[in-house]
What does this fold into?
Amino acid sequence: MHCTLRLATIAATKPPPLSFQQFIQRGKVIAMYRKYMRLTKRIPDKNDKREMRQWIRGDFDRYRSETDAQKIEVLLAQATRQYKEMESGMFSML
It folds into this structure.
């Protein structure tokens, strides 16, 4: 009985399935997050690398619950511009 109650609770808290557009956007967000994390591999100082990764994680977590598709597209565009700026800045540092 306890197991059945637990399964019912898990099923009740399961989020609804994503629409196709949400699925595509989720993939874009994950890809952008990974690009940022790969970019931090170029940072030689371990403390600076850790701080940058914490900042990136915090920034992505801040908008984790965003559901508005237009807002997500705006955030992705901002992230892309910022990534390009960071990438060009890192090449000049190395």
About this structure: Helices lie at 2-13, 20-40, 46-62, 69-93. The chain has a mean pLDDT of 86.
